[in-house]
Amino acid sequence: MSALNDARAAAIQASLNILQAGPDTEERRKDARLIIETVLKNTKLEQYRVSEVLIPLPVEQSKSNSSNGNNGEQSASAAGAVSTTHLPPLKIKELQNLIASVKGSGDSVLTDADDLWKLSHI
């Protein structure tokens, strides 16, 4: 199983390289998440949505552009709210730990990596 897990670890490393190779954008994050989800399919780690934990999804934030005197009765859209997205920080060190635990796992379903994930995240 070592060759399979080495290949999985290399693919996760490639996703990390994508994230570090350029600006932090949601498109790069989507690509990296897809790689990780594909590599972890049919393993014990698949159930934890690891890619979304380590590479967080964007968070919607809205700011009101209007100061009205309606005591907040007007809806956000009617008040001229502007919606923006914020990209939470990447968990680079945890991605590196995942790569190491996948590479060191002794079986194809990543039991060892699953145990480490549970210890550090659950």
Essential attributes:
mainly alpha, 122 residues, 2 domains, 2 strands
Write up what this structure looks like.
The chain is mostly helical. The chain has two domains: 2-55 and 90-121, no CATH class; 58-89, no CATH class. The protein has five helices and two strands. It has helices at residues 2-20, 26-39, 50-54, 92-104, 111-121, and strands spanning 59-64, 81-86. A two-stranded antiparallel ribbon has the order 1-2. It starts with a helix and ends with a helix. The mean pLDDT is 88.
What share of the residues does DSSP label as strand, in percent?
Answer: 5-15%
Low-confidence parts lasting 5 or more residues at pLDDT below 50? none
Helix content: 40-55%
Anisotropy-based shape: elongated
- SSE string, helices as H and strands as E: HHHEEHH
The number of helices is 5
Structural class of the secondary structure composition?
A: mainly alpha
Radius of gyration: 19 Å
What is the total tally of β strands? 2
Major sheet summary line:
2 strands, antiparallel
Mean pLDDT: 88
Terminal residue distance: 26 Å
Tally of distinct domains: 2
| Strand line-up in the sheet with most strands | 1-2
